[in-house]
Amino acid sequence: MKNRSRINCIGIESTAHTFSCSVVNDKGEILSEEREMYKSPDMGIIPNKCAEFLKNVKDKLIKKVITESGVKKFELIAFSQGPGMPLSLWVGANAAKEQAIIFNSPLIGVSHLIAHLEIGKLMCKAKDPVYILATGANTQIIAFEGEKYRIFGECLTIGIGNALDKFGREIGLGFPAGPKIEEFAKKGKYIELPYVVKGMDVEFSGIITKAIRLYKKGAKKEDLCFSLQETMFSMLTEVAERALAHTDKNELLLIGGVAANKRLIEMLETMCKERNAKFEVVPFKWSGDNAAMIAWTGILNYKKNKKSLELKKIEINPKWRIDA
Ligand code: AMP
Ligand code: MG
Fold this sequence. Notes:
Elements: E1 8-13, E2 18-25, E3 30-37, H1 47-69, E4 76-82, H2 86-103, E5 107-111, H3 112-123, E6 130-134, E7 139-145, E8 148-154, H4 160-170, H5 178-185, E9 197-198, E10 201-202, H6 205-216, H7 221-247, E11 251-255, H8 262-275, E12 278-281, H9 292-304
Parallel strand pairs: 1-4, 4-5, 6-11, 11-12
Antiparallel strand pairs: 1-2, 2-3, 6-7, 7-8, 9-10
Helix pairs in contact: 1-2, 3-9, 4-6, 5-7, 6-7, 7-8
């Protein structure tokens, strides 16, 4: 049969709260994808409870995804090897190993962060963008240069989503606070907050501390939400613009949960228009943790370097950096 896909890959994601499994082929078609998320409304994530949850749902989800894909033979198994929470990572690594044994196929470990970038690139048909990775735990400006992903700027102390959530927790918005902050911001006025850009890096922790202090002194929720967004997003926009100039690229791709924010999108869009650069945002469905991104990145890695992990020596990499 002509045009038939040569690699069907089962991907497995379990770096934190979500277990996801997906079948993707080497044409970039997602044949099936399922996910379930551990939730704890008031306690945050309790690592061993979370891992227990992931263990309980994994077999059901893997089976479902394989059936839905209609595929009988898998040429590759890929799993999220890091960064993430160790107990969660082990659930995925062991599940992937089981599938590699069942299908007698090579097993490959994938960087969860690179997978976020690759699925964005696939979905937006981007060629060679500068990426803004704006998730709960990460804020990084990244581009592919000299055969690897390089970080051009970042916030080392706290991720942008976690920073917004921290402020939200202090003022009683619950988790996740990002969407609520966006709503309040629509009715707010500007109050000055620290704008901290050092070279290509941004710093969000001082802004949050200041905003919390102002709230306790009686500043309005709406004004603080508006000012936080304006300040933090301007900082990101400034660094992203400089990364575009520095790398001489003319495409910007926004990735991660905070990519849902319309004001952030608007600012980046305006900046890109002024520079004649293309601006894209990853579709919402693929912005969160999912296994399609793991399967797809597994295929890309395997095509470059046809090496399988040794099943007896599988490791996880909880602190894996994107530029490692
Ligand atoms: P992720 O880590 O990529 O799953 O993204 C989760 C983070 O995105 C959380 O910190 C949320 O508060 C944040 N988030 C979700 N929606 C929005 C929004 N509309 N505006 C700002 N942040 C958001
Ligand atoms: Mg993630």
